[in-house]
Amino acid sequence: WLDSPCADLDLMAARWDGDDCPPPGAHVSHCESNRVNGAGNERIELVHQGRATWFIVVEGVQDQEGPFGLHVQCREGLQ
C-alpha cells in the first residue's frame, strides 16, 4: 500500500532475476503498477512462487514530490 496524502505519486514494482542491482537500461522480467490520478492510496499485489527480488518504486507524476507512507504485508505463512 502507498499512502500519499499531498502529492500525486505512483506505485510500481519490478522483479529482477539477477544476483545484483540491475544496470542502467536493464530489462526487468516482470513489472506491476497501479496508477491512480491524484493524491491518495494505491495498492499492488505481488504473487510469486519461489525466490524473487522485487524493487518497489514510488515516483511522482510530472516530478511531484511529497511525503508518503509505504506498507508491505506478507500473507500468513509467507516470508
Q: Care to describe what's here?
A:
With 79 residues, the protein is mainly beta. The protein is 0% helix and 37% strand. The chain has strands at 2-4, 9-16, 30-34, 40-42, 53-60, 69-70. The strands form 2 sheets. The chain has a 3-stranded antiparallel sheet with strand order 4-1-6, with no helix packed on it. A 3-stranded antiparallel sheet has the order 3-2-5, with no helix packed on it. It starts with a strand and ends in a 9-residue tail after the last strand.
Task: Kindly list the characteristics that best describe this protein.
79 residues, mainly beta, three-stranded antiparallel β-sheet, 6 strands, 37% strand
Shape: globular
Mean pLDDT: 82
Q: What fraction, in percent, of the residue positions are helical?
A: under 10%
The succession of helices and strands, N to C, reads EEEEEE
Uncertain residue segments: none
Can you summarize this structure?
The chain contains no helices and six strands. By secondary structure, it is mainly beta.
